[in-house]
UniProtKB/TrEMBL annotation:
It catalyses: [(1->4)-alpha-D-glucosyl](n) + phosphate = [(1->4)-alpha-D-glucosyl](n-1) + alpha-D-glucose 1-phosphate. SUPFAM superfamilies: UDP-Glycosyltransferase/glycogen phosphorylase. This is Alpha-1,4 glucan phosphorylase. Gene3D superfamilies: Glycogen Phosphorylase B (3.40.50.2000). Keywords: Carbohydrate metabolism, Glycosyltransferase, Pyridoxal phosphate, Transferase. The keyword Transferase applies. Allosteric enzyme that catalyzes the rate-limiting step in glycogen catabolism, the phosphorolytic cleavage of glycogen to produce glucose-1-phosphate, and plays a central role in maintaining cellular and organismal glucose homeostasis. Phosphorylase is an important allosteric enzyme in carbohydrate metabolism. Enzymes from different sources differ in their regulatory mechanisms and in their natural substrates. However, all known phosphorylases share catalytic and structural properties. The lineage of its organism: Bacteria, Pseudomonadati, Pseudomonadota, Betaproteobacteria, Rhodocyclales. It comes from the Bacteria. CDD domains: GT35_Glycogen_Phosphorylase (cd04300).
Length: 808
């Protein structure tokens, strides 16, 4: 027997053994789900071995580690990624085929770990993959939510949210660490005994560790994602239980354990509730205790903490860590304040993911006093010392100090978490070149005046393992044949494709891959919506959270324009197009939900209009998430990245789509700008106002009505929507959406960009008609996406922010 067939024979034996031992079924009776669990157990055992070895290595080398603190990790499924990292995909496929199933069917049985909302959470998951792949000594820390991102169903065109009990049947990928548990305290008051502060807390909950192993690729190293579960202290439970009051016992248990129950399903809309603050402190307090305990075990002192520990704040959500580290160092380890503050600043770094002022987190001082009284005192002291220093920089400028202050004194006093993060960190970064520039020019301008060197840029990236290897096996094998397989860990190698652009045989192979990915996507569309679409159409894709600034509504305006034009000129040479949307709206976000409904209403009219046929289809794929994205990205021709310039911090879907050979139609915003710089102006469709023009127009008094009056097709489209053409049973349904554009100031300037958007869509059509020209540009896009690997991003963080050498 060859070595590979020995490997698959032994893997098959291992699967059968796990079916019997862990799953508890005979090999003959195993269902797809049973097989999924058994294969996972086999992979888990091998990963566990790597985990133990990596830990031992990092411990003995006294490595400097990075700890990535994040409220969100949008991991998706683990199976395919784990098998690929272990190099046992083929053997596993053979193993399950003996049971008359395909590996794909088996992998599909795994629920997504959807512990995040959108871009920020998925970025954290891509980063973990890259940290492991680069052998970076690292941990992710977060919350083990019992319920992740809600599942979205569409009922008569409207979004309905269902809970996501992803843990209901257990997950084979977690390792409960029964012995790792830390107390987390809340409430009460502070007693000052001379110099010493003592926090007399009023409540305590236990944080229990659950680890997920994050395998690296082309390395035996793994990283750890440690998630905390809140557990009521046993003694508390028992007190009520022993008196026979079971109802009360359950209630007390719930009050404590609700901390890790559910992910806040808000994205860039403030959450503002006490439970959210408790979640933030809960996972930060547990993580800091764990990190310090490990540090003391390895180094015996906290004096060198910043030399061995880098803690990264993924947005302001874990910002309370700054106050918590100060509290632990000063109150619990009796370190002098000044020394603790030096350590603190040198330990933390912070990434900002949004410019929109309404999305910046603040907490009422009164709430902080109630939940975390000692932390509030510490924040006040940090603020006093900081403002004293700042006052020397610009004496007498009270506006400057008021803007810098950690406390917003206008109206109800509030703690500004972004300001706390900046003051407590040695580095602050944005997530694209434009975003990082705008940070220092706008919302953080005062801080940048004070500390210009603190601010930097780290352009986002995505992991090529999930977003190319795994999601697009067809393109991955074409790449392997054409340029070798090293691109998986050195994405710059894609550049080699440029020499193939004029090779007709290669172009045909490339087109064939796209065509089969589109057929797969079309099948998913039919399964999930009942709508049949032709893979010969141009697949025009906008997938992301539904938010006004992302302007899904502008896309709909174009679709209706096209519909009206087709009706007016039915015999023109129309490029058949399928416009595809997917994404979730925050449950309380009325306008976003209304946009979802409009998409459905417009879709029913267009898709059922016999005059239109295949010339135009409009579909909304329900329940967007990581696994659905893995089907959509490879099947897209056109990537819609159409946020108002200056509002999308970076975007990462734009990178995934271009990496899979879609051309971008987009504004001069976020990472679109860097995509343009890399692929070249001729290989991307950029339209609309640029950031300075947006700002100037806002200042000069923007008049949306002028565009309505001045553009006949725009007027016709808006009149059709507001007149009820798409909602005849309730003609006024979309009046509020249209009124917000015409009378409400059109905050995101859809009408200002409409004309240029529609004109650019016509250019898209002309290029698509020349299928060879289109393919050339798509290939050039793929060839130039190397820089958008999260390996590049993480190598840059490691070098410039965390001070940890990597092999990249
Ligand atoms: C405060 C809370 C309710 C909250 C929760 C989640 C606020 C914001 C978020 C999520 C923000 C987010 O996902 N931002 C996105 O981060 C990506 C990664 O950097 C960027 O590519 C994207 O432009 C940005 O919108």
């Amino acid at each position: 027997m060859s070595t590979t067939s020995t490997a698959s024979a032994s893997l098959r034996a291992a699967i059968d053994e796990q079916l019997l031992k862990t799953v508890g079924v005979s090999a003959q009776d195993a269902t797809q789900t049973d097989l999924m669990k058994a294969v996972a157990q086999v992979a888990r055992a091998q990963l566990s071995q790597r985990w133990v070895e990596t830990q031992a290595h990092d411990r003995s080398s006294q490595a400097r580690r990075v700890y990535y603190l994040s409220m969100e990790f949008l991991i998706g499924r683990t199976m395919s990624n784990a098998l690929a990292a272990l190099g046992i995909t083929d053997a596993a496929a053979k193993g399950v085929s003996e049971h008359a199933h395909t590996l794909e069917e088996v992998c599909d049985r795994e629920p997504d770990a959807a512990l995040g909302n959108g871009g920020l959470g998925r970025l954290a998951a891509c980063f973990l993959d890259s940290m492991a792949t680069l052998d970076l000594p690292s941990f992710g820390y977060g919350i083990r939510y019992e319920y992740g991102m809600f599942a979205q169903d569409i009922v008569r065109g409207t979004q309905v949210e269902y809970p996501d009990p992803w843990l209901a049947d257990g997950t084979p990928w977690e390792f409960p660490r029964a012995d790792i548990s830390f107390p987390v305290r809340f409430g009460g008051w502070v007693e000052h005994l001379g110099e010493r502060a003592v926090w007399r807390h009023s409540a305590e909950v236990a944080a229990k560790a659950y680890d997920m192993v994050i395998p690296g690729h082309a390395t035996d190293k793994v990283s750890t994602l440690r998630l905390w579960k809140a557990v009521a202290p046993a003694h508390l439970d028992l007190a009520a239980f022993n008196t026979g009051d079971y109802g009360r016992a359950a209630q007390v248990k719930n009050e404590f354990e609700n901390i890790s129950w559910v992910l806040y399903p808000n994205d860039s809309t403030p959450a503002g509730r006490e439970l959210r603050l408790r979640q933030e402190y809960f996972f930060v307090a547990a993580s800091v205790q764990d990190i310090l305990q490990r540090h003391i075990l390895e180094h015996g002192t906290l004096a060198n903490l910043h030399e061995k520990v880098a803690m990264h704040l993924n947005d302001t959500h874990p910002a309370i860590a700054v106050a918590e580290l100060m509290r632990v160092l000063c109150d619990e380890h009796s370190m002098p304040w000044a020394q603790a503050w030096e350590i603190c600043k040198n330990t933390f770094s912070y990434t900002n993911h949004t410019l929109m002022p309404e999305a910046l987190e603040t907490w009422p001082v009164a709430l902080m006093q109630h939940v975390l009284p000692r932390h509030l005192e510490i924040i006040f002291r940090i603020n006093a010392e900081f403002l004293e220093m700042a006052a020397k920089f610009r004496p007498g400028d009270n506006g400057f100090l008021a803007r810098l202050s950690l406390i917003d004194e206008a109206g109800e006093r509030r703690v500004r978490m972004a300001n706390l993060s900046i003051v407590g960190s040695h580095k602050v970064n944005g997530v694209s070149a434009l975003h990082s520039d705008l940070l220092v020019e706008t919302i953080f301008a005062d801080f940048a005046a004070l500390w210009p060197d603190r601010f930097t840029n780290m352009t986002n990236g995505v992991t090529p393992r999930r977003w190319l290897s795994q999601a697009n096996p067809g393109l991955a094998s074409l790449l392997d044949e054409t340029i070798g397989s090293e691109w998986r860990i050195k994405l710059d190698k894609l550049k080699l494709l440029e020499s193939k652009v004029d090779d007709a045989a290669f172009r045909d192979a490339f087109k064939a891959v796209k065509r089969s990915n589109k057929a797969r996507l079309a099948a998913h569309i039919e399964r999930s919506t009942g709508i049949k679409v032709s893979p010969d159409s141009l697949f025009d894709v906008q997938v992301k959270r539904i938010h006004e600034y992302k302007r899904q509504l502008l896309n709909v305006l174009h679709v209706i324009t096209r519909y009206q034009d087709i009706l007016a000129n039915p015999n023109a040479d129309w490029v058949p197009r399928v416009t595809i949307f997917a994404g979730k709206a925050a449950s309380s976000y009325v306008a976003a939900k209304s946009i979802i409904r409009l998409i459905h209403d417009v879709g029913s009219v267009i898709n059922n209009d016999p005059r239109i046929g295949d010339k135009l289809k409009l579909v909304f794929i329900p329940n967007y998430g990581v696994s659905v994205a893995e089907i959509i990205m490879p099947g897209a021709d056109l990537s819609e990245q159409i946020s108002t310039a200056g509002t999308e911090a970076s975007g990462t879907g734009n990178m995934k789509l271009a990496l899979n050979g879609a051309l971008t139609i987009g504004t001069d915003d976020g990472a679109n700008i860097e995509i343009r710089q890399n692929v070249g102006d001729d290989n991307i469709f950029i339209f609309g106002l640029r950031t300075p023009e947006v700002l100037a127009l806002k200042r000069g008094g923007y008049q949306p009505m002028r565009h309505y009056e001045g553009n006949r097709s725009l007027k016709a489209v808006l009149d059709a929507i507001s007149g009820g053409q798409f909602s005849p049973e309730e003609p006024g349904r979309y009046r509020p959406l249209v009124d917000a554009l015409l009378w409400g100031g059109d905050h995101y300037m859809l009408l200002a960009d409409y004309e240029s958007y529609v004109a650019t869509q016509a250019k898209v059509d002309s290029l698509y008609r020349q299928s060879d020209e289109w393919a050339k540009r798509a290939i050039i896009n793929v060839a130039n996406m190397g820089v958008f690997s999260s390996d590049r991003t993480i190598a840059q963080y490691a070098k410039e922010i965390w001070g940890i050498p990597t092999k990249a």
